[in-house]
Amino acid sequence: MDRDQGLFGPSSVTWQLHSDPTFAVGGLRALLMQALHPQAMAAVAQSGGFEAEYWGRLGRTSAYVATITYGTTKDAERMAARVRGIHRKLRGTDPFTGKEFRVDRPDLLLWVHCCEVDSLLGTALRGGMPLTDEQAERYVAEQVRSAELVGLAAADVPATRAELADYFRGIRPELRVTEDARRAFRAALAPPMPGWVQLLTPARPAWGGLAALSIGLLPGWARRMYRLPGFGVTDHAATGALRALRAGAFVLPESLRVGPIIKEAKARTAA
Question: What's this model's pTM, rounded to 2 decimal places?
Answer without folding.
Answer: 0.91
